[in-house]
Amino acid sequence: MVEPTHRVTVRAPAKINLHLGVGGPRADGFHPLATIYQAVGLYDDVTVADAPDWSVGLTAPIDGVPLDDDNIAIRAGRALVAHHGLDLAARITIAKGIPVMGGMAGGSADAAATLLAVDRLWDLQTSDEDLLRIAGELGSDVPFALLGGTALGTGRGEVVTPIPDRSSVWWVVVLSDEGLSTPAVYRHFDVLAPDAVADPPVPQALVDALAEGYTDEVGALLHNDLWPAARDLRPDLVDVEAQLRILGPDGVLLSGSGPTLLMLYEDVEEARSAVADLTERGFRCTIAPGPVAGAHVVTYA
Ligand SMILES: C[C@](O)(CO)[C@H](O)COP(=O)(O)OP(=O)(O)OC[C@H]1O[C@@H](n2ccc(N)nc2=O)[C@H](O)[C@@H]1O
Ligand SMILES: Nc1ncnc2c1ncn2[C@@H]1O[C@H](COP(=O)(O)OP(=O)(O)OP(=O)(O)O)[C@@H](O)[C@H]1O
Asked: Where does the GHMP kinase C-terminal domain start and stop, copy by copy (predicted)?
């Protein structure tokens, strides 16, 4: 008789920040945030299978993704097993669809996917509260990758509250050949904004526009406090941003800590023609819908 394969695959989305309000650094070095997250349709698929030891691999090699204990997916797997006081291990395989070091939280998506996959693999029945807490300990963006949809993020980004979003939009994701380091962007933010407030305000007008599904207003209200720091570190982004605005999208935005840039479209045909135009001019870009679901099981065997 053939032994059953014990294997679970979880899909987790990329995120963008429709609003990223950043305050001055706290005593622990992290920055207080008031952010509106949205999950968008670029995904990593994470498969976990019983194994004698923890290990991680990619379905295709990608520079910049560690394949040792530094990989956040292994840290997530170990953390959940330790939480339950168990001595179990898994082989983790990641199929990456989210750009690496693009400010779209690819590593965070892998951590969230691994938490859910490991929970299901061994039927650990972790409560949502515990999963979100462990996620927050792994990284500021990880809880949102579990939640998906559109949400308010506070604290250092790890405290997430779903908000109503009746918009249904298309993002043209304009990639960069080189990544940007998140800590470096935050450090430069501190230089540029030494008087940043301790408590950045919730962007109520954007919250209301999302609840009503008014894409035009959402486009006009997109905002990222890290943009001045990112464009200082990567001056080439200034010209790219200007070229994107000329195409007349409903909005343009730096994704998280960058360097990925985003164009907002309500109409998918307009988004497609922007991609065709930009591709012809040598840009690397793709389309992603938003909002989409958070981490979810796709296969169980
Ligand atoms: C830029 C964003 O993606 C916006 O959602 C996040 O703020 C970054 O989230 P993340 O990559 O999950 O960040 P973490 O892994 O928690 O922290 C990485 C580093 O980013 C900086 N960091 C992150 C979050 C935050 N609120 N303040 C910070 O200063 C710190 O230097 C920290 O050492
Ligand atoms: N599973 C993983 N996938 C990608 N990067 C990982 C992973 N585990 C650890 N890392 C490390 O995390 C760093 C950030 O990678 P990631 O692709 O998550 O960046 P990002 O999308 O800019 O993140 P964020 O938007 O959360 O700041 C990389 O330099 C890489 O060394």
From this structure: 207-280
